[in-house]
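Task: encode each sequence below as structure tokens.

Item 1
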Amino acid sequence: MVDSSFFSGGGYAYPDFYAYPPYFTLQPVKETREKQMSCWRDLVVSFTRANRVFEFETKTFELFENKSINRSLNESARKAIVDDLCAHGLGETCEGSGGGTVRVLWRSLQEWQSCVLDWAHRTGRRGDVLTVEELCDSSEVAGEEFRGMPPSMMERILRTLEKQKKVMIFQGTDQDDLGVKFL
């Protein structure tokens, strides 16, 4: 078993390939690389979901280094994995980050929209006004999968819901203070 005590998710069960050094080097044979990318894609998505990671920095993402076997992915391998995540609709690079910050979509944006709406309806929030910050990280959303979501991601979800006329977004008194009313 891989020593995962250095990870924030110490109870996460890593797949066998994670202890296999060649997986930390891009494979030159097309079929082998496709399998490698598939394994990394599944690992990144399952790890981020289990540890509630919504975004990571490619240069410092702890999953891209396995200290127990003294291996880490080089920059081109990290980029290849991120590109593969994005190509499969499971990730996107964040604007203004120079490609260094990656948003992981362990739920599709449509699934996140449903999740937020389901919460609002389940908890009787129709007609209520909340700030984006409250939706992302307040005691009212404790236990919800979207708790801890970056406000920029929540805002993107809410903007789509607004176009569908399911919420109304308005500017608060502060420049960064957005309010949302569930319709």
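Item 2
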Amino acid sequence: MVTTVEVRPLLTATGFLTRKYLFADATPENGDESVPLPVWAFYIYHPGKKIQALWDLGIAKDSSKISPSIQEAMAAVMKPTITQDAAEILTSNGISPADINYLLISHPHVDHIGDPSKFPNAMMILGKGTQAYCRPAWPISPDSGFVEENFPDGRVRELEDADYATSVGPWPKAHDLFDDGSVLLIDAPGHLPGHQVALVRTERGRLLLGGDSCHHCAHLTSFQKGGNMSYVMHLDEDDARLNLERIDRFLKKEEDVKLCLAHVGEHNEGFEKIYGNA
């Protein structure tokens, strides 16, 4: 029997990036033009095991959860608007944040790690190499863009080599979260060390939750050498390009898969289920 999960989108914030952060061919004339930037998170429910998880959290409303250096940068560049954060969206749809079991974090940038304290019973799962890169964080490291409090003691699990016991298409390292193939956490560094994507199986198709593999729909066709994608927001350009090549190959081969990136596209109105392309 094939096990599936339910997935629902959460539009946790809206903001902007300028073209110079997105496109290598931005010019002085158009480089400061604003491009809309949604901030998506995703609720995952495993009906068989009664497990509830979130893929990313969006941005924290509480400024104490954001380091001073990042607060300044966000005000100048992204200028986010948060009507309801992830916890408030869940609450307004009858789901208690205290009942969330897992926080599956693609990577710990401010617009993904949100405010974990609002989910007091959830285990945070990070990709291998995440904490070595971003900790010690603020305030221990005053200039850090990450916050120590967002890695709650006793509630953080970072995947290790032994956890990556399977593979997915072109990706050699994947972790079967529920041991039934319904949610696979895939090692996909490039944007940051430890960046991960997830392949999630629903009733009508699969979703590839892509995190920050890229930041604009045009990047899916312009990541090749000579293309106009900018890698200024990716720590390792070669790994970021390799991950996009893998996504491209996978989507072309697997017709039932829909890509859901953190800052790209639109999903169903409200808190409705989303499915793959089948």
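Check on item 2: The CA atoms of residues 177 and 183 lie 6 Å apart. The radius of gyration is 18 Å.
End of task.
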